[in-house]
Amino acid sequence: MTEKNIIRSLFFLIICGVAVTGWAQSSDEQQRDSLYAKGQTYLGKLDMLEHSDSIIYYLQKAIPYFQQSQHWDDYVGCLNWIASAHFNNGDFSEGREVAGKAGKIALARLGEASTEYFDALSILAVLYDVEGGYDQSIRLNRRVIALSRQYGGEESELWNVYLNLGYTYKILGDYDQALFYFHRAEAVWQDLEQYATDYDYASILFNLAECFQQKAQWGAAAAHYQQSLRLLKGIKSRSEYIDQIVMDCLNGLAAVSLGKNQRDSVLHYTWQAIQLQAQGHTLARAHLCYSLRSQWFTTQGDFAAALSNMKKAEKVVSNTFDGYDQHPEIAKIELHLANIYFEQKEYGTAMDHYQKALASNTLDLDTLTTAPQFDLTQFINPLVGLDILAGIAKTQYIRFVQQPTQVQELNKAYETHFLIAKLITAIRQEYLADGSKNALAQKVLPIYEQAIEVALAQYENSNDQSFLEAAFSFAERNKAILLYENQKENLARHTAGIPDSLLQTAADLRFELNRMKRQIAEAKQKKGEFAPASIKQWQSQYFELKETHQKLIDRFEKQYPEYYHYKFAQQSASIRDIRERLPDKQTAFLEYLVGEKSAYAFLITQDQLQAFQLGSRDTLVLLVNDLRTLITRPPNSESFGDNFRKFGTLATRLYQLLLEKPLATPDHKIDRLLIVPDDILCYLPFETLLESTPDWNHPGYSPNQLEYLVEAYAFSYHYSAALYLQPEVARTSNSKIAFLGMAPSFKKNRLMASRACDPEALYSLMCSQDEVRSIQAMMKGEIALGEQANKSLFYELAAQSNIIHLATHACIDPENPELNSIYFADDFLSNYDLSALNLNADLVVLSACNTGVGRLVKGEGIMSLTRGFFLAGSRSVLTSLWAVDDCATSAIMSGFYKNLVAGHSKDIALRQAKLSFLEQADKVNTHPYYWAAFVQLGNFEALDLANSKNHYPLTIMGIIGLLGILGFLLMRKKIYA
After folding, report:
1. Are 530 and 537 in contact (CB under 8 A)?
2. pTM of the prediction?
3. Cys staple from 196: which of 154, 192, 367, 399, with CB 3.0 to 4.6 Å?
């Protein structure tokens, strides 16, 4: 009997004692107490029962007495216990029906602040979860959290709700969001002293470990698995529940070892798990022991051992899920069997198992394949469904490759890939965490790579242009989607009729969220400077802010249909739209996709679409890295000639791989290239490439005779075709400042000649302040120099500025791209800060080092400062691909603005500035290190400078400033001549 029921029984005895002493009590009250007591007698039997059926029997006996005595808390409590018992029995539909009834009665009789109502919602959420109703489960759990906060509930009562939310997001594959809730459950649990158990904490640690494992963070995963095991081993009493988590941790460690290619550890941990199962308990997921061993043997090519172990796993699954026609664990075994047979090239048998896996994981196969609208809920586990469909598609395609006459197999593969694309979109829309979306993009890259191969095979077979367009569509579907979604969400906020007050609330919340994220991230980096209690408090505040912000976003989606429409409109970039957007016949749009095996290029002009298969990714990585080694550092006078020869060979080879065939295709001359790079190509300035290898044996040949591609083409770079076509948010009326230039000074005494960054020792730059002055002479506007160039002033003026120019230092954080930072005199601006800003700039110039580089995320691109400024609302960014020379940068910047004032588009303005620099440069300064670092991303069109009335004398001053800088530069480099 629970403590609550004991107290109530004692209370009943006290009432009886009072009646004996002569207190008057109505017959109705006596009758209710009598009925209540009878109900309690049935509850008293529960402590002696272990089987759910018996528990349900006695609870149902007690219910009428609680109903008649109007003890609604006990009445609803019985219903909640019955629903839980049905869950234990696997009778999920019955459990859902009972829990739903409990919720309705609790709401009507006890109110939405009652514990019984919270319990009913939580139980209902778990029951929806196990049957694949993930949206309902998430909605119900978040409702419990909101109600608890509204009515002053204890945070300690919610740790299980957080755990359940994390589990649901883990199933969906939204591992970052799952980690968010698991960490919250951990934090709340650690504050519990009286009620917490090591078993509970071990369960949280296991779930954290599994998320880290799925994210391939092997070290964090192993540490959490081991910590969970240590806690469990310290529990003296053993039970099936404890052994279950022990086995799960052992299998988890085996999975980590599999990811790290550690054979002995895989076999060691799985053998321990098998021995644990043999001790008597019937444990769920026991099949994973054999499945993991099978996967290991598959990687080693030992297919006999792989099949033997997978057959054992299949037998265990059949026993565990006896009576189930469909279950994702059954589907996973069939999927693994199919993969083994595929590796053995037994494609017919492989396809049989893929189809069995699909049937085991799909509620209605006919609806899935024939319905015009794709329904994600048809998959019991969407991620398993994705892997199955990918296996089916590759098997269909390989059958065609083996027998090209079997065109129907090619057609099937093509149709399956479109079904996969719909599934990927549906999964992505369910995810909340950006990290999970990035992980999904990396996971599906090889699937889209094969989809392109299939579509191009269809085109080769039929010469039907629609297949070329489909191949391009597959390449585009996985390109910078997170950035695109953020841009769409920004567009949705400003076009959906949301009141300004709500938009401001959302903006304030975003600002606070990002401020807290930066504060926590910096505190974790500066170990020892912050007390763990402070970090924990900030994490708690961040959690509450995020829940509040998500609640507001949910409100936007429900109350403003246009917001929902714009936010979730599918990424689309049709060839027709791209052609209509191209300014003329001399402009070509060139998009790349670098897959795991091959790279592809798609060339689009106003009258052509062509696709090209390029070299392997490994070849491109090697060539680009070797070229960057030569051009991203100042030339060495001792090895100057040898380095230029190596550069010539690499630059020519890359041209041949990336551009030679595409640029030979158009019928007319191309002089402007809009490049959408991918993967390693994001680090490459294409304008440094050469059409032919220089003739170094020719007498008198010099590096300043090299014909870089910048001489033939204007280049602009873009994240994706969809972002190139994305409608811009309407300009607000607060762009009052035509130009904002900032060049801070720093406290260190000496001056630096490079804008390279050391956050511990930032020195003032030699040429940055003159750079900003000379630009202001041309552009007018506002400037801030030295100590006046501080972060507060930037916050005050940036949103009002049409052009923002920052001549300063920037630092890249290799561990956390959100801490990539650009410096002011007093503080730095990170990507955390940028994501909360709302800029209105046509152009941002980041005249600093490495602003265009950072961590490379496959599918999404480089997590750079440039990306942060696009997220903040800039339409175009001029950015750098390495640590730049201070005075060479100033010269190019002055030339760039001179050309903008003359009315040139941004890409041509930059090209002309580089050409002017090269024309006046000596042999050393023609080295790409000095002039090629800066590239232009985004909108390349000419600026509207109507409000900047530039007077002739000011232009002359700017030119004089430019010539002065060039003169200084040439004098400084004489030593290399």
Report:
1. no
2. 0.84
3. 192
